[in-house]
Structure formats: C-alpha cells, structure tokens
Amino acid sequence: MPSTTNIENELHSIADQMAGIRISDCFESEPSRASDFRCTANGLVLDYSKHRINALSRQRLLELAKASELSADFDALTRGEAINITEERAALHTLLRGTREDENPQLYAEVKKTNAHLEQLVGQIHSGDRSGFGHTPFTDVVNIGIGGSDFGPKMVCRALRSENDILHTHFVANVDPQDLDETLAALNPQSTLFIICSKSFTTEETLTNALRARAWLLAAGASESDINDHMIAVTTNLDAASSFGVGPENCFPMWDWVGGRYSLWSAVGLSIALQSGWSAFQRLLNGAQEMDMHTLNSDGAENLPLMMALLEYWNTVFLKTDTHVVLPYAQRLEQLPDFLQQLSMESNGKRVDLAGATLTVPSAPVLWGSAGTIGQHSYYQLLHQGNRAFTADIILPLSHEDKDLDAQRKLVANALAQSRALLVGRDQSAARQLAAKRGQAESFAPHYEMTGNHPHSLLYFNSLTPEILGGLIAAYEHKTFFLSRLLGINAFDQWGVELGKVIGRQILTMLEHGEDLDIIDPATAVVIKAWRSINTTDTPPT
Ligand code: F6P
To answer: Which residue among 144, 149, 256, 270 is best mutated to probe the pocket of ligand 1, counting the most ligand atoms within 8 A of its Cβ?
Structure first.
C-alpha cells in the first residue's frame, strides 16, 4: 500500500492534468458516466458525475481513504474511543440511535432510560395529563438554546412541520431581547412550555433568555411552584439546572460524550417529538441508524458519506475550491444550511492537527447556502459569472407529496436547470449570438459568457420522510468526520469560540461600569463610551 504522501502527491499531479478539462465533455467520452459516478444509501442518491473527477482520481482517493484507515477510524468512533483528544472524550452520537449498542451496554442503558422518560413526558403533554398553570393543556413549546442546542432541533422541526403537528414549536437563541420578546408576544403563558436546552447550562444567551421566560410566566400570574410545570431542562449539568429551579423530574440528561452539534438525537430533540410525535422522532433516529450501518458496512465507492468526504477533500485540497454552497430545493429544508454551517465549520474549521502542528492544507471550506429557488435571485450571479472557485450540493426531493404538482414541477425544473447551467455555462459563440440578437457589437459578448464547469453534487431522494431526513443528517455527520481524519484534525472540540466569551464578560463589565477602558484598544473604548452615553445617565469621566 503506497503511503498517504505518495498518493497525495499523485493526486496533485492528476489535479494538474485535469485542470483544463470540461466536465461536460466527460459525459461524451464516458457514455456510462451518469451511472458510474453515483452511489445510493437507504433511499438517498448521490450523483457526483458533475464533479471534476475521473476513474483514476476516484481510485486514488479511495486508496487514500484506505491508507488513512478511515474505516478503522469510524469503527473507533462508533465503539466509543476517546477520539476527542483535547477534551478526552468519546464522540458517540451514533449510540444515541442505538448503533453498536452492544459495544457500550451501560451507556446505552442510560440512553434507553432517558428515552423512556422522554416518551412518558411527551405522552403526558400530548394527552393533557401534564398541563400548564390554570390547567391549560400545552399548545406551544419554546426551545431556548443556541448552537447545537438550537440548530439541530430547529432544522428538523422545520423540515417535519405539517398540519398534523401536535404542539407548535418555537426556537429562541439570541440574547438580543427581540428574539424572545417577539416569540412570546404571540403566545399564551398558560399553555406555553419551555425547554432550556444547554449542554453546559452556562451559556449566557440561554440562561439570560431562560430567566426572562421565567419572569414572563410570573408576570402572567404563574406562581413559583407553577414554574416547574412549565420548564424542562436538557443538560449535562443537572446541578445547575436544579439551582435554576428545574425539578429533577423535569431534567433530562445529555452526556459529555456527545458534541452539541451532534446532539439532536438525544433529549435535545425533545421539541421534535412534542411537535411531530414520538413515532416520528424514532423514525428519524432509525433513518440515522441505517446510515450508520451503511457507513460501517459499505466499501469504497459504495460508501455514500465517504464519497461526500473524498469529493470535498479533492475539491478543497487539490482543486482549490474555497467555499461550499448547500442548495436545498425544498422550503422545508431552509434551515439545513444553517445547521450544516455549525456541523461543518465548528467541527473542521481548525488550523492545527491532532499533534498541534499547523496544517499545510486548507481545512473546512466556508459553508453557506439557502433554499432554492430563492438564491437564484441573489447570489447565483456570483456562482455563474463570479471568479470564485466553489462546490455545491443541490439537494432535491422528487415527490410532490400531494402538493401542487405544477408548482413542484417548476421547482424541480429550476434545480435541474441550475445544475445544468453550472455544468455547461454559456460559451463565447452563444454569447456572441446573444450580443448580435441584442443589436450589440461583439465586444459585448464577454458580459454574457458563463464558464460553467462548476463541480457540484446532486443529492436526491423520493420524499422527505423522517427516515430520509435522519439518513441525510447522519450522512453529513459522517462526511464531516471522515474529512477531519483526512485532514488529521479533531472534529469534536471548539476552542475557537471560547476567547470571544472571555472577552465578552470583560466588556460587559465595562459597558455596565465604564471602568478600565484603558486596558482595551481605543476603538472599542470609543464605542463603549458611545453606548454608555446613549443608555446610561452616568456622567462620563472627564
Ligand atoms: O458555540 C460554542 C458552543 O459550545 C457549541 O459547541 C454549543 O452547541 C453551543 O455553544 C451551546 O452550548 P450549550 O449547549 O452548552 O449551551
């Protein structure tokens, strides 16, 4: 087996050789390209034929995966090895959906016990046996959390939202009082349940919002003892939750062996079950478990998450693309890019490897995107005529799901049209014809040219069921993990977000008291003084 260095050196030379090819030409020279460059898993189809890839580069990428022992790494992850080296923890989000439960029977017993308690709570709330003050059945649930305590459940609730929802879900994350105030303005305190979702139970935004929600209930006539009926805590820090006033019967554990951005499968996903039902939540987990088993048992090019990872590694490290745009052509998946931003960039937005050495290759690309067709009327101009190197995932449900067939057909036509436009562009000859048609000189043609040749994947499936959604999310989780191993980095810590929190606490004091401004940069001091002059009556120091 050649070394990873040798393989990577050859991949660099292959990338150089492929620099000038037009992907669209490959379809002519390789009649079976459309079927050769795709793989499937549990109802998901990954079509990567519109990437700048050929049989040789794919073969070398698969050899790189083998030489990098990615299968052994995934085995270690699902067995619960402490692969999160800086926090000396496992990353066992797969266990939350029962994958390889036999490897960690004690931990899985805790998962099952918590899930049984969750199911009981959901049943009590849905039946009205558990109600709010004034004995009003709950109609709305507000999840107060941020980051992994927000994006995952919010994205899934949005994707599964339907006229059959049992409770209405709302998500508050920002410490900006506008976020909570706007949400509560439309709600009835007597029928509103709050989930305080925080792995650490120390996150300032979440605790601030939780205290303000508590005040809102009291102001509406709830007694101190009523509060306990309206507040559920999901955290590893049960002591802090108890100190906040959430009774032990309303505290649901999450564990330090699950990263926040990988936690929606735990009690963090309670809002999903309250909205869509316990069965739908279990179907979501089942879909993820199936993707886990696919990823454990599939080899090479058949392994969908592995191919997603190898394509991103090929594009970012060898073909030098620097952003990755996710384009779900389904309004129900409008939150997916936001979720994937944290999953990908908080996991792999790193600059040193596991040994602490500075990386010599680019790590995670900037991930962005929005639901199609909306982006077509804003940033697609840059995609088609900008000079940035990017890759894209176009995600597409095929079934119109009893929605308006005509409108859904237009949606699919746009998705496939954009994929084709990214592939073929508009060449000089066609641009010249357009200039002539507009009665303009040939010198106008460059304004109408589009290079095309933009590498992108098509990820499609029949219907966005809970199983398909669970499998899709798990596929991105495993893609993220495989990428971290190819890069040699730790996907499961996030030390980069800590500095802002430390400085934030210092500046909060300065804003409050107007002191010690000499220890920070003068520019920041100017703004602090400006804020104080508007928001306090204190006389500024002379
Ligand atoms: O952004 C930092 C971070 O720790 C995320 O990793 C996490 O999902 C989020 O803040 C919220 O943390 P907690 O769930 O502990 O409130």
So the answer is: 149
